[in-house]
Each structure stands twice: as C-alpha cells, then as structure tokens.
Amino acid sequence: MLRAGVSTACLYPKLLEESVYDLAVNGIDHIEIFVNTDSELEKKYISGIADTLRRFEVSCRSLHPFTCPMESMLFFSGYERRTLDALEYYKKYFDTMNILGAEVMVFHGNKSILKLTPERYCECFIRLVELGRQFGITVAQENVSRCQSGSLEFMQSMVSLMGQNARFVLDTKQAVRAGENSFNIVRTLKDHVIHVHISDHGEKGDCLLIGEGRFNVKQLINVLSQESPDCSVMLELYRSGFQGISDLTDSYNTLCTMINSIPPKEE
To answer: Per-residue pLDDT tens for 116-168?
Structure first.
C-alpha cells in the first residue's frame, strides 16, 4: 500500500547523518536518502546510517545520487569509456542501497538541450537499469523539467520502447515547471510510476508544504491508490520552504492521514 515519507534533501545542507537522525527522532519512519558526496558512500559511514535506521525502526525506500547533474555526460554522451566508468561507479550506490534496504534509485537522465531520440535514450538507460537489477535495485526515471524526461510524451515513448523496464518517479513540482499535469502522468503511466516526490503548489510557489497551496494532494493520493498502490509518497521541499522540523512532521502526518483515509479500492 501507499506509504508517506520524507526526503533527507529537505534538510540540506545539514549533514546527512544528522538529517537522518532528526527525521527519525521526530517520528518519521519512512525516508528517502539523498547522498551528497562520495565519502557518504563509504561502507563504514553507511553502516552507521543503517544502524540509526534500525535503532528508530525507520525504513529507507529510495536513494537519490549526488551525481544526477552529471548523468547527461556519464551515460548519454557516446563516450564509451566514460560510460563504463560510470556504470562501475554506480555500483557503489547499489551496494549502499543494499546496506540501507533501499529499492528505488532516482535518475534524472539526459538534459533537453542535448536531446537524443527516444530509441537512443533507451539504449543508454537500459544499461543502468539492467545493472541495478543485478543488485535488486529498480532505477526509476524522474520527470525533471530541464531533462528529456520532463515530457509525458517522452515518458510514454520510454514505456513503448522498454515495457516494464520503464519505471518512473513523479515529482509534482517538476510537473508544474514542465507544464505537465501530475494527474495525467499517473493516469497515463499507471503502475510504471513507482515513487513520488510530493509538495504543494500555488500562488506562493511550486514547492510548498502540504496545505499551503492549491494542489489537491488528497485527490492525487486517491488516484495513486487506484493506479499504483505500492508507491512511497515522499515529501521533498527546499530548505527555504519551511521553518523547522515540525513543519516537515506536520506535512508528513497530513500525508499519513490522507493515505489512511483512502476509500477501499473498487473491484
């Protein structure tokens, strides 16, 4: 079933271990981890994070790599030696995820200004997808507005070309920035959407605490429950978008309440 959570990215630039602790000690029991630098992939360091998760009975659903801005160059440039090195490097993320118990890696992909055909894009992307599968990890494409994946049409092309290998992270603020509709994305891609970065939006901005905008978050939760009921719905905000940890816990609790009030699925 759907689960609410919070990304450590909300607390950036606080150190990752402190962010995990702060979320855990404040009762948030499901998180996404945003790795910020190479040293945070060291086994001893990650084992410490995993100990904190076990201590507070917190589950980690997903990991967001700090190298996401470089993915155009790493995977889509056509420079094979660099791609091979990148695939080898991403094994460090997958090993880290195995220690944390995370199952979904968030992927930004190729920038729109470096546009590739959908066919070529998928040829490149499938290599990382298949590598992740060897570690029990699902690599999921996020709908980032500045990337080719910001377009629903492009994501539909990925499904046509890759079938069940095409999995997606819906980011509601990125949908707003790309001029896309989050409801259309979910209803079109259905269970190909396996993870969500959620925030409210309205006159005050496109990345707000739940309830501070006009976005019908509860309706999106209901649509997800029908179309892709195994998603984690992660609150992802910028640090400038809230005052303190209590704001995050309030939005998290609101998401939990919405999920718990989902009507039974129609047979």
So the answer is: 999 999 999 999 999 999 999 999 999 999 999 999 999 999 999 999 999 99
Euclidean distance between CA atoms 66 and 64, whole angstroms: 7
Cα(42)–Cα(207) distance, rounded to whole angstroms?
32
Domain total of the chain: 1
CB contact at 8 A, 175 and 146 = no
Which residue range forms the structural domain that includes residue 83? 3-260
Question: Other CB atoms closer than 10 Å to residue 256's CB: what's the count?
Answer: 18
Residue 234 belongs to a domain: yes
In a domain, 266, yes or no: no
Domain with residue 15: its CATH number is 3.20.20.150
| pTM for the structure as a whole | 0.96
Q: Which tokens in the block code for residue 169?
A: 């992270």
| Domain-embedded: residue 265 | no
DSSP one-letter string for 163-217: GGG--EEEEHHHHHHHT--HHHHHHHHGGGEEEEEE-EEETTEEEE-TTSSS--H
Domain for residue 88, yes or no?
yes
How many Å apart are CA 75 and CA 87, to the nearest integer?
8
